[in-house]
Amino acid sequence: GDGACKHEWGDESIKKYVPKRDHDGANGFSETRGTEPARAGFKTELKQGQFCQRCNAWRGSFGLEPTPDCGRPFMELRDDLTKKEREYVMDELKKEGLI
């Protein structure tokens, strides 16, 4: 992004997440199919922020970046974490599909 830009924010990006069930369909635990009301209806929509239509700057919540590069500058500025810890956090966020 450009610090001097008068940002024009686009539509908010949303990532949808549906958790996996604890059975493998016909391959096992078929007696539990449909008996998991808490998880069966559990779906999450994560708001991933917005991009500026002029300079491509991003604004949103840390940890919900749509790409690793969006959160990297913040992670690099954190002086309370070692380089190894910053890399670990970024790797974990990637594994969880959050970035």
Automatic annotation (TrEMBL):
Residues 16-25 have a biased composition (Basic and acidic residues). Residues 16-37 are annotated as: Disordered. This is Uncharacterized protein.
